[in-house]
Structure formats: structure tokens, C-alpha cells
Amino acid sequence: MEKSKVMQIISDETLTYSQQVLALARLAESEDSTLKRNPLWDKAIKEGKVCDLNEGYAPYRPRYILPDYDILMKKGCKFLELEPAKTLLEACNNLLIFYKHLPSITSYPVYLGNFTDLFMPWDDEVSNPQTKEILKLFLKHIDKTLCDSFVHANIGPKDSKITRLILNLTKEMQLAIPNITLLYDDDITPHDLAIASIDTMLYTSKPSFANHKMYSKEHKNNHYGIASCYNALNIGGGGGYTLPRLRLYEISTEAKSLDDFMDNVLPKYVKLILENIDQRIKFIVEESSFFKSNFLVKEGFVQREKFTGMVGIVGVAECTNNLLGIKDKALGFGHNEKAEALAAKILAKIEEMVNNHKGLYCSLCDNKYQMHAQVGIDTDETDDAPGCRIPVGYEPELYKHLMIESKLHKYFPCGVGDIFKFDQTWLNSRDAILDIIKGAFNSGLRYFTAYNQDNDVVRVTGYLVKKSEIDKLTHGEQSINNCTIFGKGAKERGHALERKVYGKGTN
């Protein structure tokens, strides 16, 4: 007799108690059908043409929330009875308390703030031995209690002594959580801070580099943060009501021809996903209690108008290959100018439809939803490369890879990224890596992330895991990091850890 979904969860010996509780809660959420959906949506879900990313159909909070932590530091929080921090210890303690009360799709905060900015008032205290100990305990607390690699902090683009200390501690402690992104601008970020970040990245797979020049132009008052899977969203709103996604390869299998795909099939599914986003946002804002009663809203930590709906895109490579009749991936997207040109044409078509649609309750984004290159999930098959990435194992040489990606990143103001794997020969080539990043950013790349193949902490896609923790799951043991489960699935089904290595001297 097949076990019920509930029994599957509570009898799974690889899940911790906390993970079982979360899994049961998500099951309840996914089984509810409060929202009356278009039958075409349900059909598309069943056929794998679209994906709701397990958000459920009684949405009671936005998917991603990026609070304005500056308010917490300056004014404290009435609801949590927190006074403004006068010391670094108080600041860290206030943040740790605050984090526990932040909702998200994962039930953990997806954004922890910009540590460079938040800790700047205590920058001159770095020489105090207690400063290192306080930050060490702060980071350890995050790793052991916010057990999800979608938890994300930012540093930069400015320099600070505490930023340098956090980089050193990240390297020393080898923690997968929090994920970290450096907001990089070569006009603002000192050369040696960028080099220190690359050094830490080569040993711990973080920080990633975000193209601050590009993102700051698209976000009013430069007030944005990188959260979760490199989502670029407005601070003080958090940007993301919801994130359903288009599975472009699966959609392309319905088309009788390329023209049929562009004129009929693709518009049908884009319209369907926009309709779903409208419905979910309307429910969250008008029927759920979040924007009516949550203390984050009442005290101004988030503002409704700073949110937007997100249109996720996955499987660009496989879609173009299929439409062009290319069977051998080695001859397809990433190695075929016709496929790459078609990818740009498809993304431009989606962008046009998204921009022509009047979004609900997202005035800061000019009443428009935004596109996000979705990273994929552990249950995806190998025929769904994340976003607009070149399939794993078929990457061209590095320069060509970067140029192909750079042409497509402009379509994704809500976030896009790619991963580059290096070997030990690059450990003494930090300046060369920085030159690569600068060149890529100048060419239009939004986000650069890399890891060393020999690291225990490795990047799967938008999140980090430890290979040692994946091994635990493989042998039936438990792992404290929720993302280890996703990492195991991505490794086994999507071969996510088999990216090519670019040796020293690659052009």
C-alpha cells in the first residue's frame, strides 16, 4: 500500500523535526484550492508547461520580502520591543530577533540586509577583539538557526573594515549560510576589496558579484538588494509577490513550427502566467491579512507599492534547440549563433508581452511585472537548464560563454546569473578573475558567481550546499541545511556539480 504524502514526510528518516514541520505546512498549503484557477492553468501545470514553484493556492504572504533594515537600526521596532542599537552586540541581537519574524516562501528570511551599511557605525571597533567574536557568533547563529541557503546577505559596493572581517570569517568558518553577494562597481569598490572577495569566493563559493552599475540604474534611489536565487528586488518592499515560471522547452513541444510558437503557443502561456500572477497578487493584497495587520507593514519596514510580480523563465537553451531541430547539445545553444539569436528573439517577445500588461499593486515598478531567470528545482529533468544558461557539460570556452550570456541578461531586471567553475590553478590568479568579471560586466553581464571544484561549500545554482552534507543524505543521514535536499536532487537529476572547469590561461 502506497504511503500517504503525510506519512511519507513523517517517516522520512533523512528529515529533521524542523524540516518535517515545514514540509507538512507546505503540503497543507499546496493542497488548498481557495483560488479558483483557470482550467487551462491546471492543464498547463499537469503537462509541465508552467510551474507554480509550490506556492499553493491560498497565498497569505508575499514570496520574497526585503525589509528596510535601516529603519530597525535607527528606530528599533515597537512590535518586538527593540530599541535602536547602541552597540555592535545590540545590533546583531536586534537583527537575529527580527529575522525570526520575517515571512517568505521558505519560512526563512531571504534577505538579511547589507552588512556593510548596517554595521558601518561600528567600523572603527574592528581592532577590538570582541568585534570578531560578536560577528563570529552572529554568523554561526545564522547558519544554525536560519537553515536555508536561500538566506542572503549583501556587502559593498563601499568598503569597510567590518566587511573585510566578514570576508575573513566567511573563509575561516566555511559556512554555507548566509549566501553573500558583493554589489560591485569598479568606480566605488576598491581593488583590494574585490580581490579579497574573489579570494573568499575561491575557498567558500561566496560572495558572488552583482553588477551594481547595471542594477542601480534600474532601481529608484539605488535602493535594491540581492536575495534568494540572485533576485534583484526593491528594499523596503521586497519586490516579490509571487514567482510562477514558464518552462520554455516543454512549451515549445506544443508548437507545429517556429512561427506557430512565436505567434500562438508562447503568447498563450505568457498570457496564462500573467493572469495567474494577477490573481495571486489580488488575493494577497485584498483578502489575506498580511498588508492589513503585519507589523512590517504597520511600522514601514515594507511598503506594498515596492513589490512586483515576477515571471520566471527556465529552459531557454533546450527550447531554442528544439525549435531549430538540433538534437546534439554540442551543436546547439552556446555553440550556434542561430540558436542564440533565437533565444534573444524569444526573450524579447516575452518582455514585450510582460511590459504591455498592466500589473497590480506595483507602482514603484511602473505597474509592470518583471522577468527573472529562474534557476530550476530539484525535480526538474536535465532538459530544463536554469534560465538562459548553457546546459551543464556543454559550456564553451569562458570568453565565448560570457559573451553569449551577456547579450541575454538585459531581459532580467529581477535577477539572472551564471556559475563558473575553476580549479586549483586559479588560486593564484585573482587579478585575472577580476579582469574577467570587469569585462563581463562592461559587456552586460548582471551577475557572476564561481566556485572552486575542490571546495566542500559549492554552488549548485542560486544556493550553496556542502558536498559533505549531500553525502550525508545519500547515506540516509540528516542534514541541517534545507537546501541540501535540493542540492542532492540537482546533483543526481541535473548533474549540477559537473560543470566544466576552466583551466589557467583560458581566453
- Overall shape: it is globular
In the sheet with the most strands, the strands line up as 2-3-4-5-14-13-17
Strand content: 5-15%
Please bin the fraction of helical residues: 40-55%
Write down the Rg: 22 Å
Q: Give the end-to-end Cα distance, rounded to a whole number of Å.
A: 57 Å
Helix and strand content put the structural class at: alpha/beta
Largest sheet features: 7 strands, mixed
Low-confidence stretches: 503-507
Number of helices: 20
Mean pLDDT across all residues, rounded?
Answer: 90
> Quick one: how many beta strands?
17
Would you kindly provide a written description of the structure presented here, covering whatever features stand out?
The structure is a single chain. This protein has 507 residues and is an alpha/beta fold. It has 20 helices and 17 strands. The strands form 5 sheets. Strands 2-3-4-5-14-13-17 form a 7-stranded mixed β-sheet. It starts with a helix and ends in a 5-residue tail after the last strand. Helix 5 (88-99) packs parallel to helix 7 and helix 19 (467-474) crosses helix 20. It has a domain at 1-31. Strand 3 (152-155), helix 8 and strand 4 form a beta-alpha-beta unit.
Write the layout of secondary structure elements.
Layout: H1 5-10, H2 17-31, H3 39-47, E1 50-51, H4 69-75, H5 88-99, E2 111-114, H6 115-118, H7 129-145, E3 152-155, H8 161-173, E4 179-184, H9 191-204, E5 208-211, H10 212-218, E6 224-227, E7 231-234, E8 239-240, E9 245-247, H11 248-252, H12 258-286, H13 290-293, H14 295-298, E10 307-308, E11 310-314, H15 316-323, H16 337-356, E12 370-373, H17 398-406, E13 418-422, H18 430-442, E14 447-452, E15 457-459, E16 464-466, H19 467-474, H20 483-494, E17 501-502
